[in-house]
Amino acid sequence: MQLDKIVQYHKAMADPTRIRMLILLSHGELSGQELADRLKLSPATVTHHAMKLREAALLHERRDKNTIYFKLNRYFLEQNAKASVAFLFEQHPEEKEEHAVENEKLKASVLKNFFTKDGRLKHLPAQYKKKLIVLERIVSELEQGKKYAEAELNEFIKKFHDDFATIRREWIMHHFMFREQEVYELNPESMWTKWEDVR
Questions:
Q1: What is the pLDDT of residues 63-79, one digit of tens each?
Q2: Engineering a disulfide at 193: which of 4, 40, 57, 174 sits with its beta carbon 3.0 to 4.6 angstroms away?
Q3: Which helix (H) or strand (E) holds 156?
Q4: Nearest Cα to Cα of residue 50 among 20, 70, 75
């Protein structure tokens, strides 16, 4: 994981209020108002801290009418913590090179086995790491900075696979994209769930 992502993670965590928010959310999903009440803060203050945590991909957020609900992203919390330790005890150059070669072989194998010659996806892999490779392969054909209506995104996904709803949902879950009022946009690649980091 890149140094800037590790720094962003620690900046997001370097606030007592945000730590308390994460502790509360470790017990389950809460609305912004519920967090404000429990922390004795204004909703605006909770929104500010939630934005910092969301930028580091530590929170999931969903809207239900006028209420925003927050949920802990345990995967990213664990991955960032592990990445911080790994960064301090970095692999030797020869180990890195060997790992990179193994990753390239795996990626080539997955793309060969799960896509037809004309680029259609046969089915989503059950194995998590392989699924991320497939999701990344498809989403990489979308344009950074472009806003996609849901219908437009569905048509794009159908070029690869008929189950557009599942793929669209997986992109949101793994931070490839974010959705606001049925409009979708790519997240920066630094926020994507990286299959290379999955052990």
A1: 888 899 999 988 888 88
A2: 174
A3: helix 150-158
A4: 70
Query: Tens digits of per-residue pLDDT, 148-166?
Result: 999 999 999 999 999 999 9
Which 8-state DSSP code applies to residue 146? -
State the Cα–Cα distance between residues 73 and 149, nearest whole angstrom. Answer: 26
What are the DSSP calls for 65-113, one per residue? TTEEEEEE-HHHHHHHHHHHHHHHTPPPHHHHHHHHHHHHHHHHHHHHH
Which is nearest to 11 in space by CA: 55, 44, 48?
A: 55
Phi-psi region of 48 (alpha: psi -120 to 50; beta: other; left: phi over 0): alpha
Answer whether 62's CB lies under 8 Å from 68's CB: yes
Collapsing DSSP to helix, strand or coil, 162 comes out as coil
Closest by Cα among 79, 73, 42 to 58 = 73
Instruction: Name the token pair of 117.
Output: 């010659």
The answer, yes or no, to whether residue 25 has pLDDT greater than 70, is yes
